[in-house]
Amino acid sequence: MANVAIDPTVTHEEKLIEDLGYDDHFHDHHHGDKYQSNFITTYIFSQDHKIIAKQFLITGMIWAIIGGLMSLVFRLQLGFPEESLAWLKPFLGKWIVVNPETGMGSLSPDFYYALVTMHGTIIVFFVLTAGLSGTFSNLLIPLQVGARDMASPLLNMMSYWFFFMASVVMFFSLFLSTGPFSGGWTAYPPLSILPQASSGSASGMTFWLISLVFFVVSVLLGGINYITTVLNLRTKGMNMWRMPLTIWAFFITAVIGLLSFPVLASGFFLVMFDRSLGTSFFLSDIFIGGKALEHVGGSPVLYQHLFWFLGHPEVYIIILPAMGIVSEVLAVHSRKPIFGYKAMVFSMLAIAFLSFIVWAHHMFMSGVNPFISNFFVIFTLIIAVPSAVKVFNWISTLYRGNIRFTAASLFAIGFVSMFISGGLTGIFLGNSAIDIQMHDTYFVVAHFHIVMGVAAFFGMFAGVYHWFPKMYGRFMNEALGKIHFWGTMIGAYLIFWPMHYVGIAGVPRRYYRFDTFQAFSHFDELNQFITIAAIVTFAFQLLLVINFFYSIWYGKKVMDKNPWGATTLEWTTPIKPGHGNWPGKIPTVQRWAYDYSKGDRDFISQIEPLAEGEKDEVSH
Amino acid sequence: MTFLIVALSLILITIIAIQIGKVSELAAKIRGEEEMQEATNRRQSAYMVIFMVVFLLGCIISGVYYKNYMLGFGPHESASAHGGTLDNLFKVTLFFTGIVFILTQVLLFYFAYKYRAKKGSKATYFAHDTRLELIWTIVPALVMTGLVVSGLDAWNTVMADLTDEEDYIEIEATGFQFGWNLRYPGPDGQLGEKNFRLISGSNPIGQNWQDLKNLDDFHPGEIVLPKGKKVRVRITAQDVLHNFYLPHFRVKMDAVPGMPTYFVFTPDKTTEEYRQLLRDYPEYNVPADPKDPESKLLWEVFDFELACAELCGRGHYSMRRVVRIVEPSEFEAWQKEQPSYYFANVRGKADDPWTDRVFDAEIGARKAEFTANLEKALTAATPEEKVLPLNYITYETGSAKLASISKYELDNLVEALKAQGSLQVEIGGHTDNTGDSASNLQLSQQRAQSVADYLTSKGIAASRLRTKGYGDTLPIDTHETE
After folding, report:
1. Average pLDDT value for residue range A433-455
2. Which residues contact residue B161 at a Cβ distance below 8 angstroms, ignoring those fewer than 6 apart?
3. Which of A102, A180, A582, B209 has the lowest CB atom count within 10 Å?
4. Which CATH class is domain A12-26+44-279+294-572?
5. Which residues make Cβ contacts (< 8 Å) with residue A609, sequence separation at least 6?
6. Tens digits of residue pLDDT in A170-214
7. B69–chain A nearest CA distance, Å
8. How far off is chain B from A291, nearest CA to CA, in Å?
9. Which B residues in the span 391-450 are in contact with A, Cβ-Cβ below 8 Å?
10. pLDDT (mean) for A452-473
11. If you ran DSSP here, which 8-state letter would residue A607 be given?
């Protein structure tokens, strides 16, 4: 290319925006930036998508630490049931039961189940839904489609604050005298409805329900916004096939969320009715606490259908944004177009569609008619096909690339490894005949932790390391990032890989102790090992937290607008974009998002017009 | 103190982390960004390969190490007829996924190593390849089709319910917080009706005693089943969800309040046979109690177990019942010994609806009891001991009219008197202690007379009989004298 900027202070890209950009007169309408006029409107009740993204991220990080610590406490109980936990008494109070004679302290079973429940709820909803999709959808959708902000900044702000309220209510429930909810993150009735059945089902469940209803509102407000923004606020030239895969992923995620979360909410409302108004949606034929209850005619299985109608799409709500981020990060750092861009989009669409017709594979053993399971087995195992396509495409993206190893690209590669390991075990579980034995064992725990827990976290980490420069104008420390990666990669496999063996041996999940059964008591050493691995792996996460907060203020400064040499629009904004993202005109898009190593160029930004005779990769 | 240690170590970690960060950035400045990145690429890509090797070897070695506890391998064989099919499916799936696992992980890490950025290297612009993409869409689809077909074939066979023509045993398990109530049908082979509203201290699963099918049902403390016979387990729950899980038999099904579920399986190994199987493995030749080297070996104390596999509250982990599989002959013997729950715990008590009825099963037993008592009375040494209690003669309340079910015991007496032609007896009448003593005394006299009248109506000479009312003073029925 021969065109070099004539004025040395104006870069090539700035000139392209100036020449080809679209003038929406944004800055004529926003004198003095009224949205960010004081501290409160700038940092707290901000309507700017970039600030809201940071709010989601930091709230998610706080929850991740709380949720992670909870898992360590119950892992201590599982790994070392003979060791005293009395030293935790200052933190956990009455939930540590100390034997007055021996001084031996152990976790009360009630609180063990409360911790397991809270760990699941917090990580699934607050960290991997709000913290992941909330953060990156907010940050990247306007920046990568070329919009000034979200379609409705007000709804966007409300989305965060509903999440915040959900957080506050859930946090307070931890301190109730009857304990937080303890019936599992799936909250199956009748256990979740009857306070007689479990102390956590008293006020703890009320708080849990209120919190999650707020959370559903948050997801819906966010989702409507993401969808509208992607559909209506794309800049000129940004047709759907020119969107980066991140945007496709966030868009599809938002659609799934919008269709499935209301069903969860309706399930929750019916649970509330059964708890408070004496209805019998999910209750029938129950004798408890020395009394036969009046409820007849309801079905606990109906709740499971409503729950998993969200519950299964939810795992894709978690994993799709991670997939999008990984696709983008892998392409940028291998300096190669993502392999099979259209196949990637279609496979995401296929996964999204199929995710709505596989929910009952969580219910093979719940007493539904076995004939129905045939359909769910078929659809479930079909999902393996688009998933396999994605894996092969990621691997092919690396093939003949020019891979630059950064913390972000390491985590992206780690994601693919985790997604393979965890995805393949899904083939066992999705096959109902094998699921007879595997259902509700540690094999399931290993499967979903690897495929949607660890993998989604890896996607999130990749995103944080990659877009941190865009968020704060500074880099995170690479050396610490790499130590963090290897510690997490090795640690996560050490935690979850052995769980497969425990599960194949038939050990059920959600057991407080294993020594009550001969069949389940062979794994004392392995359980200790898993616990130690979990503690060490958690410690490595502190590196991320330290690195993150240290780098916000003291990290290496970003000097180049486009530090990774990426093609997408977010890197055409100033290093620290203000409100409205672009100081002048909005750039227009001239080509698809993955022109890396094309011809003799290292990369060609999306805003650069096609050369004469040059064909766009996908829009032809 | 604990708090202080935690806080201090956190601060220490932070300082160390920040120092590592600073040093690395300083090094980058000295060596130059680009050269530093290249060194990083070299190092990190090498780690990728090392990780791949250690990871894959670790997977294989640990898998082999733990195989003796795993599904379908070593001693963890299935103990049911259908279990082998499921275990084979597991192995087939393990085979295919294993290949894909190794292949993709190797390619991923190898490519990461091979295509690291080097000085002057450049990526190839290679955006898609339709043929390649078709192959890796179609091949997984075909493998999946194979797995689906074999999986569903197994599933539909295992989950099929039984028809009435088939020969099977039906048993019932009811989960509650926190345990299982087990119920077997008696000789009639059928389980009686139950209703959760009837549950009480004396009726743990709410059996409806009006339903005659219930009367011979028994509640054993463990599941005992014959080898080689189909078993249909009717699974129910009393309070919250539970799950009927027999790990060794590959059986698992939720117990749902208000919706009975079932699972059909055929045990194909007895407990004893399974113990012999475990005997060959060193893992099972260790003392069962690690603290006591003298205790029995693990294989010797092995038992099949029933567990709960659906979160049901604080005691979820403790819902254990032993499952014992025995030879059919042993099963039959065991089954005969089991007392019916109704006759052992309900019969004659407040909630027994059948006070006006004698069941066939009882007639023989009562006769045997009568005969034994008669023998004892006849051979007794002193006149005071020559007393024959008549336990099953009852009257309508407050009256001397014999209840119809008294006739069985009276006929026993008639028979005995006819056999012992010379026997003279005094018939003593009694009442309970409600009402005043005077009228009770009178009633008891009338009651003794009713018995005597019945006996004479059956041809016993009135001269052999004397009657006496004891009122509410004595708890026995007939006095006899020679």
Report:
1. 96
2. B232, B262, B264
3. A102
4. mainly alpha
5. A16, A20, A590, A591
6. 999 999 999 999 999 999 999 999 999 999 999 999 999 999 999
7. 5
8. 8
9. none
10. 96
11. T
Radius of gyration of chain B, Cα coordinates, nearest whole angstrom: 38
Give chain B's mean pLDDT.
89
Nearest to A432 among B111, B151, B283 (CB): B151
% of chain B exceeding 70 in pLDDT: 97
Identify all chain B residues contacting A381, using CB atoms and an 8 Å cutoff.
144, 147-148, 151
| B7 neighbourhood in chain A, CB within 8 Å | none
By C-alpha distance, which of B309, B328, B154, B301 is closest to B228? B328
What mean pLDDT is reported for chain A?
A: 93
pLDDT tens-digit series, residues B224-235: 999 999 999 999
Token reading at A61: 């990080």
H-run or E-run covering A397: helix A370-398
Q: What is the pLDDT of residue B474?
A: 61
Q: What CATH number matches the domain at B360-481, 3.30.310.50, 3.30.1330.60, 3.40.50.970, 2.130.10.10?
A: 3.30.1330.60
Say yes or no for a CB contact (<8 Å) between B259 and A197. Answer: no
Point out which residues pair with B194 in neighbouring strands: B207
Say yes or no for a CB contact (<8 Å) between B144 and A384. Answer: yes
Interchain pair A335, B20: CB under 8 A: no
CB contact under 8 A, B25 and A416: no
Minimal Cα–Cα distance from B36 to chain A, Å? 11
Cβ contacts from A onto B, under 8 A: 380
Contacts of residue B124 in chain A, CB cutoff 8 Å? 336, 400-401, 597
Q: Is the pLDDT of residue A7 over 70?
A: no
Which of A385, A405, A497 lies at the smallest CB-CB distance from B59?
Answer: A497
Contacts 24+ apart (CB under 8 A), B393-400: B393/B451, B393/B477, B395/B447, B395/B450, B398/B435, B398/B443, B399/B443, B400/B429, B400/B443, B400/B446, B400/B447, B400/B449, B400/B450
What CATH number has the domain spanning B168-346? 2.60.40.420
Give the distance from residue A103's alpha carbon to the nearest chain B alpha carbon, in angstroms: 17
CB-CB under 8 Å, B248 with A519: yes
ipTM: 0.94
Mutate which: A402, A454, A526, vs B, most B CBs within 10 A = A402
Phi, psi torsion values for A530, nearest 5 degrees: -60, -45
Chain B CA closest to residue A289:
B239
Domain ranges of chain B: 1-31, 34-121, 168-346, 360-481
Q: CA of A416 to nearest chain B CA: how many angstroms apart? A: 8
Q: Please tell me which residue of chain A has the smallest CA distance to B42.
A: A405
Displacement of CA A23 from its chain's centroid (Å): 36
B90 touches chain A (CB under 8 A): yes
**Nearest-CA distance B230 → chain A (Å):** 18
Q: What is the pLDDT of residues A226-239, one digit of tens each?
A: 999 999 999 999 99
| Contact between B148 and A283 using a beta-carbon 8 Å cutoff | no
Which residues of chain B lie closer than 8 angstroms to A530, CB-CB?
none
A198: number of Cβ within 10 Å: 29
Write down the domain spans for chain A. Answer: 12-26+44-279+294-572
